Amino acid sequence: MAVNIMIPKLGMSVDEVNLVEWKVQEGDRVEQGDVVLVVETQKTEWNVEAEGSGFVHILIEGGNKAGIGTVVGLIAQTQEELASLQTHPGQDTPVATTTYVTPGKPVKQEGAIEGGGGETSGGKIRITPVARKLAEDKMVDVTKIKGTGPGGRITREDVEKAMTEAPAQPAKEVKASPESYQGRILKESISLRGMRKAIAEHMYRSLSDTAQMTVMGEFDMTEMVKFREGLVRNEKLIGTRISFSDILVFVISRALIKHYDINCSFIDNELKIWEDINIGVAAAMGAEGLIVPVVKHADQKSLTEISRVVRSMNDKAQSGSLVPDDVSGGTFTLTSLGKGGVSLFQTPIINQPESAILATGPINDKAVVKGGQIVIAPVMPFSLTFDHRVINGFGAEQFMGTIRSYLEEPWLLLA
User: Fold this and answer.
1) What tens digit of pLDDT does each residue of 196-205 get?
2) pTM of the predicted model as reported, rounded to 2 decimal places
3) 196-414, what's its fold?
4) What's the burial of 404, exposed, middle or buried (CB within 10 Å: 0-12/13-18/19+)?
5) Mean pLDDT of all residues in the chain?
6) Do residues 295 and 330 lie in contact, with contact meaning Cβ atoms separated by under 8 Å?
7) 167 φ/ψ angles, rounded to the nearest 5 degrees
């Protein structure tokens, strides 16, 4: 009996996923545990593994959406069972509909999911996945084939018969001329997909839906640099190497306790103040952009606990093993360029539905005035972007003032 390839439950907040890419072709042999499909939620990609060994029958093609628990494919135990699934799908089994168009017309991906059977209508042709692949490989025009499957669905046998009756002519090799756009030669076109597409849409939506304002300034990090140096010297005793990002998460979480109005979201015309203080820490993913794992209940964690969570989340981000729950539920975000950064000030974009994000730059020595004297001190630039619909300028300044006090006089964290 065939084994289902099903969209697994990926977290409390996920109801639907995008099918990014099948890692196998129709009819391929797979073993239990092999990755057969990549799906994505709003923020992360997820590998779906085979629950059994056998031959893959794809029900829903990549590029479509599917709900949690949806059967998107089957694994047949034998070739005979696979052939039966391809030619005689059960009435209660979802069947993918692929759209074909005649040459010269723009392609329109219908992405419809219908029950087994159905006549050709509106340029849409019912065809099994294996027949579609065979037709593409052999350059067979399926618009001229009459299907003999259920409801007129084109089967592999129909395509093979068409090949014997009218062999496909080899395509003539045409040397492509360089593509240009408004007088410029095009080197490459890259379609945004997966995480990069999700990030682009999320950032655009954030700027479109909120009234974002950014305030900038600098922190004198003289005392905090000394504080961290002491922690690093005692790394073995502490059990972890404390970073400035760890310290910032600790400081932000304590400041949010005092300024709970910053720990909010604007949803359905209501200002929602959150009891939980969950700090997202942006992590670089190379060309894919940034992902924001969340330190849950940061205000209830010690500095060493925060450090271990941040390190664990970064490791999972780099290995691609984050799950949706790791990147959901944030109430405030920190993004830091670190010592390798070049920019001093930024205008970071709010990670909705949060209402504020703090960006920090690299710590560099700079001439500052202290006690009427010009001295050299380590300085860290910052940029706070907030939603001006729910956070006013005075509240943002008070919040940053508390953070400044903690960073410039670390002993206040013990008060």
Assistant:
1) 777 777 788 8
2) 0.65
3) Chloramphenicol Acetyltransferase (3.30.559)
4) middle
5) 82
6) no
7) -55, 140
